[in-house]
Write a structure and sequence with these properties.
39 helices; 35% helix; 22% strand
């Protein structure tokens, strides 16, 4: 049928989508079709296709049993499994047991006619072809990637999964898992069984090393090796006898060979493996970049592999390989491989060399072009964004094809070889790009800087026209490049300077021919071979013939009435010179016209000639024409390509068809006659194929009839037999063979609209496309690109055939035709109408009665026209009778509920008010009635509108109701209507448009809508409403209501812009605090920087940031910082000095500006710092301390030393009050780095006569001593352990080291002796001990009172007598005596303690002090366990404990630490 054939590309990412049988027939899935090839070592030949799947073919396999090699199976994403006869190319059986996408298929090599498939849900289905039985197994709940049946054990099946698991199941045991092979950690791409049944020893180390590094199976009688390839870049050999891996092979990193492809397409590894039948010790696998390697499992050494195609010619694939299969051709074993590079290769496994390469196509074949210089050089423009150049005359390689992809990146829709320059090929793309490739160089293409806005339809080389034709002969190219695209524009490009701007030839045409009207969009162009005449096809079907170089319009051809798709001039080397003036044209109509333009060209008239009669009409196609080509070897021989899927050869001079080619399975897009062989034609289509065929070998003469035409002729047959009347000529009375007319003549010939053009059966669709402004050319390159959307560059995508879509659309059109038969409307006069359908005798009696009435002038007593039995006569007498008839008709409609008919009858009588009242009463008002209401007066109209509004509201048509209220000037009612039904947006729009800006209704609307929006959480829109009412404060508040950082920041900015400075201040501070809690210091400072009034807070945040960084190395700060400033990481010793330096450098705050510092101090002093508790989070606690430290630093700048020391004290004591001793210690070290010496420096600056200053300094000194006390205690504990224990962990310390440590401890103790006395003197303060004891006593009594009140409540609930109300001394209580205590007694005790408390000086009570009793207990503990402790301190501590430490908790602590 055809000579050479470029098929569609095999589908990608399938574990087994190609296979070859023992007879050398290769089958592979491409889109939703299976292609079959006869394979020899010399060349391949496409023999046919298997079509039937509706979605992508996902698997294909041949049956390997003798005599059954022609049986094959395919799986698809349509979830069906089909069994085929590859010789007869017919479907034998199918099943759809799978409910999920099928991902694996294999014929059993042992069990006859058993087909096994697996799907993505993990289901394995066994199908016995002979008995049509199926059995399903679910071995693992995983996604199956591949499977393989054992060639030796008929019931064993190996299954590979997506997660790297491999299982071997036994189908005779209900799918029981025999082995679980674990080792891979990624997708299993392929499984292959060893063709040899026994597990012979392999050279290499076993994975478990059980056999001394050999990896061989000792028994070797059972089992079989299994090879697996995985995405984890390894191939493993498994022993199914032991269920373990015996060898792991890692892919080698090889330098990529071959021609590169688009690097923008990301590749992924696919590791497929194949075990050749004649080579049990050798495995072939794919590699990273398309290389294939042969592994020798018996070979020693590191390199066990050999590269296939290692010759310098670069025979390897250039992209990853998906499938491999082999067969034996005589003494040679050949391997077939498919790859992402869209090539099928055949390899000789003996020499490891490539025998041949078959390129395949990954897109529609949009255009073909033979080089006029390079004989037999054919260029293909394909939808996979590549140009292929085929040397069709190559003797050594029938498929000598080069691929070009650089700089294209879109579908190639147009090609044109330069007429003189060899190898210069112009191309146009789907995205409007025009460029020129030099195919004999390795340079990237030159791209024109002028892009079309739509798909490039056609390209043509022609003589330059102005402005490019101006200048000397050496200053301009001999040929310009012309491009026509979907927006209807033709550009002239300078091939010498493609970077320059191209010119639009429409300007030249308009100026030369003085055209004032709009030029129709252009869709194709063709230069006459001698370059003297240019033919341009237009969207409206006209063809303009212009003379170069000024493009004078010679004539216009008005033959087609649809978009022109293709124009072609006859060649010049004809034996008949006049044939060179023949112009063939094809359009969206099915008819091809050939015009002889000799007279218009040779003897042009002054004004353009209008040509309306064709030289020849070629009818027969049934769809749009997409391509034309004249035979360069014949006179008047034309070949056409059509959407009907066929190519037709015509003898134009005889106006007869020669042959019809039907080898494509899709629509044809392009055609070319062979430049060297007079009998060969090349065609390409949307079936992704290019086919070469011989004219003399075609069995068909004319194109096939369309389905629509066949159905029409089927309908004609029975009609001719059933009808007795003689048929008129041309109406079906002739035989179908005698009426072989183009499609469309049967349907439109009688009307005379396009019958001579043979309109196609999808005219409606084409007109719709053209109406959308897409300028769709019928040659499918545009409609395929812009309107179909079914082509995919990557073959792994699903594909729906175009023909099937057109069939579906045709069925839809047939259904729509049936729906055009509308049901007969209900009669408005049913009673009188029914009276006219009585028997003939009664109707004749009506005539007699009517005559009697007419001639008796209505005085007949027996008959009253228009009523009763004579209601029908009311239509034929006077108006009174008609009104009587209307009355009875109305009563009938009333009973039936047809109120609309009643309204019409009243309108016809002229009773407009009655009609309106009836419609209002029945709720049947319409827009029509409302439009008539003004005829009855304004009041009636207004009343009708109000009634209609109520009716509309009942039907929830509130917008329409409000509009009608506006029409009668009831504006406020309309607004209230919208508001009451929550249509605030519409109500506001209406109010804004019609009311005054100060109208209170408008504000009420905004406020009401804002309340609803706020309730629903739409804060931003609610804020807009508040802004509209000038409530800026409320707008900012509502935005801040969400509470996140972004909302707070926005709200602060809104408040600041609106002049609400106090609100802006609070919101900014709130936002900054949230950012502080997330430790985003940079953002916090940015927020505070927006307002000058927040400078004091900026200083506080600065202190907090520095403090956090200083505490980052301690146990206090355990979190990470999101962002911070560089100045916060300063490591100077003095913390406050660091703060002052940062303030001066970053914030401009220094001691020199006392007014500013004092203002900041007053601002921060006004902030209330809550008391510290144990429940305060650490970040919050540090923030409170930062405020104290900031005030301290400001007071220091002001020189107010009492305040400085007081605020320093607050910062120190917060850690202690929160129960965080470590924090207090760290703050002491930061704020008072020298300890008591630092305190002494502060005391020097105080007024010693000021009691407040003395009290503050005493408290500060006490807290410093407090933390030093614990520090000394812990240090003494460590040194004591060192001096008292000379053995550590079982090892004696050396004498020297022991003596040194002991001396150090004694020295420290001696040096601290004098210091310790001062420390204890500060801590053991009797006034503070008295204060703290009194406070503890009051707290204890309050606890008892609380307990007493609780007892009283319990007594009331249990009805115990009030006299029993007393509180017995609880165990462990502090009171003496065994009696009970009353509330009065406790009250008296509290009063006594308050007297004691009031006697204590106020300064003692005001400032915090460490717990004196705690210090006494620690001192006694240290005296008992450590030497060199002052005895008078112990005596003082004991005295204080006896006097003030009577509480039970203190007694217990005292006993525990001192005894």
């Amino acid at each position: 049928m055809h000579q050479r054939h470029l098929p569609a590309s095999p589908n990608w990412y399938c574990s087994r989508c190609s296979d070859i049988n023992g007879k050398g027939v290769l089958g592979f899935g491409a889109k939703n079709t299976i292609y079959l090839l006869n394979v020899t070592a010399a060349s391949p030949a496409v023999t046919g296709e298997l079509s039937g799947h509706t979605e992508r073919v996902s698997g294909f396999a041949f049956c390997s049993h003798d005599g059954q090699e022609h049986i094959c199976a395919s799986t698809s994403d349509d979830k069906t499994v089909k069994i085929w006869d590859s010789e007869q190319k017919i479907l034998l059986k199918e099943h759809n047991v799978h409910q999920s996408t099928i991902s694996a298929v294999h014929w059993s090599p042992v069990q006859k006619l058993l087909l096994v498939t697996g799907d993505e849900k993990g289901i394995v289905v066994c199908y016995w072809f002979s008995s049509n039985d199926t059995q399903s197994f679910f071995p693992e709940p995983r996604t199956i990637f591949c499977l393989s049946c054992s060639p030796h054990e008929e019931n064993y099946i190996a299954v590979g999964y997506k997660d790297g698991m491999i299982v071997v199941i036994d189908i005779s045991k209900k799918g029981e898992v025999i082995h679980r092979l674990r080792g891979h950690d990624d997708e299993i791409h392929a499984l292959a069984w060893c063709p040899q049944p026994r597990e012979e020893p392999l050279y290499g180390r076993s994975e478990d090393n059980a056999d001394g590094g050999n990896g061989a199976t000792e028994g070797a009688e059972v089992g079989c090796y299994l090879a697996s390839g995985s995405r984890d870049q390894t191939m493993r050999i498994w022993s199914t006898a032991r269920g373990k891996g015996v060898m792991t092979l890692k892919l080698p990193f090889l330098k990529r060979r071959g021609v590169g492809v688009d690097p923008a397409l990301k590749e992924r590894l696919w590791l497929t493996v194949h075990w050749p039948k004649r080579r049990p010790s050798q495995i072939v696998s794919s590699c990273f970049g398309g290389e294939m390697v042969m592994w020798d499992l018996m070979k020693s050494g590191k390199q066990k592999w050999s590269l296939l195609g290692s010759s310098p010619e670069g025979q390897n694939h250039s992209r990853i390989v998906f499938n491999m299969s082999s067969f034996c051709s005589g003494d040679r074993e050949l391997l077939l491989s498919t790859s992402m590079d869209r090539e099928i290769k055949c390899w000789d496994l003996a020499s490891l060399e490539c025998c041949w390469t078959l390129p395949t196509l990954g897109g529609f074949v949009y255009c073909l072009s033979f080089s006029p210089v390079g004989t037999g050089c054919l260029a293909l423009g394909v939808g996979d964004s590549m140009i292929r150049v085929w040397n069709t005359l190559s003797i050594q390689n029938q498929y000598d094809i080069k691929t070009f992809w650089q700089g294209i990146k879109s579908k190639v829709t147009a090609l044109a070889w330069h007429p003189l320059k060899e190898g210069s090929l112009a191309f146009g793309t789907d995205d409007g790009k025009v460029g020129v490739y030099e195919v004999y160089s390795n340079k990237p293409p030159q791209i024109s800087s002028t892009y079309h806005r739509r798909t490039v339809y056609s390209l043509s080389w022609g003589p330059p026209v102005p402005p490019m034709s101006f200048g000397g002969s050496g200053d301009k190219p001999s040929y310009s490049l012309y491009s026509c695209a979907g927006e209807g524009v033709i550009f002239q490009h300078d091939p010498w300077k493609l970077s320059g701007e191209a010119s639009n030839i429409d300007k030249l045409i308009r100026d030369t021919n003085s055209i004032k009207h709009k030029i129709p969009p252009h869709t194709d162009l063709s230069w006459k071979p001698d370059g003297s005449i240019l033919a341009i096809g237009n969207e409206d079907g006209s063809i303009e013939v212009l003379k170069a170089p000024m493009l004078n319009l010679l004539c216009t051809v008005q033959q087609h009435h649809k978009i022109i798709n293709s124009l072609c001039w006859h060649h010049e080397h004809s034996s008949q010179n006049e044939l060179q003036y023949l112009l063939a044209s094809g359009s969206n109509n099915a008819t091809v016209y050939v015009h002889d333009l000799r007279s218009a060209i040779e003897t042009p008239s002054e004004s353009p000639v209008l040509v309306t009669e064709p030289f020849r009409t070629l009818s027969g196609h049934t769809n749009k024409i997409t391509g034309l080509a004249w035979s360069p070897h014949h006179d008047g021989r034309l070949v056409t390509a059509c959407y009907d899927g066929t190519s037709q050869v015509w003898d134009v001079l005889k106006e007869q068809p020669v042959c019809n080619y039907r080898g494509h399975s899709g629509r044809l897009l392009c055609v070319q006659w062979s430049a060297v062989h007079p009998d060969l034609v090349w065609t390409g289509g949307d079936d992704f194929t290019l086919q070469e065929w011989a004219v003399s070998k075609q069995e068909h003469i004319t194109p096939p009839k369309s389905k629509k035409r066949v159905e029409i002729e089927k309908k004609r047959g029975p009609q001719k037999k059933s009808k007795k009347k003689k048929k008129a000529p041309g109406k079906g009375g002739i035989k179908p063979e005698e009426s072989e007319l183009p499609l469309g003549e049967e349907m439109k010939g009688a009307a005379g609209s396009g019958a001579e053009e043979g309109q196609s059966d999808n005219d409606e669709e084409e007109e719709k496309e053209n109406a959308d402004g897409l300028s769709v050319t019928g040659w499918s390159r545009e409609s395929s690109v812009d309107t179909r959307g079914t082509e995919t560059v990557q073959n792994g995508e699903k594909f729906i055939h175009a023909v099937k879509r057109e069939v579906k659309e045709e069925k839809k059109r047939e259904k729509s035709d049936l729906s055009l038969k509308k049901r007969k409307p209900r009669s408005i006069l049913p009673l009188s109408t029914s009276m006219d359908h009585r028997p003939k005798e009664e109707l004749q009696q009506d005539c007699l009665t009517l005559a009697a009435v007419r001639h008796s002038h209505g005085q007949s007593r027996a008959c009253v026209p228009g009523s009763g039995d004579h209601i029908q006569l009311g239509l034929f007498t006077d108006r009174d009778a008609l009104y009587r008839m209307f009355q009875e008709e109305e009563e009938s409609h009333m009973e039936a509920g047809h109120y609309d008919s009643m309204v019409y009858l009243r309108l016809w009588k002229g009773d407009l008010i009655g009609a309106i009242n009836l419609a209002v009463e029945k709720g049947e008002l319409t827009d029509h009635l409302l439009s008539l209401a003004p005829m009855a007066g304004y009041q009636v109209w207004a009343t009708t509108v109000e009634a209609y509004v109520k009716q509309l509201c009942h039907h929830e048509q509130f917008l329409k109701a409000a509009s009608h209220l506006v029409s009668i000037q009831k504006l406020y009612e309309a607004i209230n209507l919208l508001k009451s039904h929550q249509l605030y947006r519409e109500a506001i729009a209406l109010a804004r448009a019609r009311l005054q800006p100060e109208d209170p209704v408008l504000k009420d609307l905004y406020m009401s809508w804002a309340a609803v929006l706020e309730k629903d959480g739409h804060y931003a829109t609610a804020a807009k409403c508040y802004f509209a009412t000038d409530s800026s404060f409320d707008a900012a508040k509502i935005v801040a209501k969400k509470g996140d950082v972004m909302s707070l920041k926005t709200a602060a900015n809104l408040a600041w812009i609106s002049g609400e400075s106090e609100l802006a201040h609070s919101l900014s501070l709130r936002c900054a605090k949230d950012l502080m809690l997330s430790q985003d210091w940079t953002a916090a400072q940015e927020v505070l920087r927006t307002q000058d009034s927040l400078l004091g807070h900026r200083l506080m945040f600065c202190v907090n940031e520095i403090l956090t960084h200083r505490l980052a190395d301690t146990d206090v700060v355990t979190w990470t910082v999101a962002s911070s400033h560089t100045w916060s990481k300063s490591c100077e010793e003095n913390f406050l000095s660091t703060v002052h330096k940062v303030w001066q450098s970053e914030f401009g705050v220094a001691a020199a500006d006392l007014v500013k510092v004092k203002t900041l101090h007053q601002q921060l002093r006004a902030i209330e710092n809550p008391p510290a508790t144990t429940s305060v989070p650490m970040k919050q606690l540090l923030f409170h301390i930062s405020l104290d430290v900031t005030l301290c630093a400001l007071s220091q700048l002001l020189g107010e030393w009492p305040s400085t020391l007081e605020e320093l004290l607050q910062g120190l004591t917060r850690g202690s009050e929160a129960g965080h001793f470590t924090l207090m210690t760290e703050m002491c070290q930061l704020l008072l780095p020298q300890g008591l010496e630092s305190v002494a420096l502060y005391k020097q600056k105080l007024d010693t006569s000021d009691e407040r200053s003395v009290a503050i300094s005493q408290s500060v000194e006490a807290f410093v001593c407090y933390q030093l006390m614990y520090k000394k205690w812990w240090n003494y504990s460590k040194t004591s352990a060192l001096t008292n224990n000379t053995i550590s962990n079982g090892h004696h310390l050396t004498e020297n080291s022991h003596n040194e440590d002991e001396a150090e401890c004694k020295g420290e103790a001696q040096s601290d002796g004098t210091f310790s006395e001062g420390l204890w003197k500060v801590l053991l303060s009797e006034p503070h001990a008295n204060l703290q004891a009194t406070q503890r006593a009051i707290a204890e009594i309050q606890r008892r009172v609380t307990s007493l009140i609780q007892q009283h409540s319990q007594c009331k609930e249990t009805r115990v007598s009030p006299e029993a109300l007393s509180t017995s001394e609880e165990p462990g209580g502090s009171s003496s005596g065994n009696g009970s205590e009353s509330l009065a007694t406790l009250t008296a005790q509290v009063a006594e303690h308050h007297k004691v408390l009031s006697a204590i000086p106020e300064l003692i009570r005001k400032y915090p002090f460490p717990d004196v009793m705690e210090c006494c207990i620690v001192s006694l503990h240290m005296e008992k366990h450590f030497t060199l402790f002052p005895q008078h301190i112990c005596a003082e501590a004991t005295t204080l404990l006896h006097k003030y430490g009577t509480a039970e908790s203190l007694c217990k602590a005292w006993q525990r630490l001192t005894h």
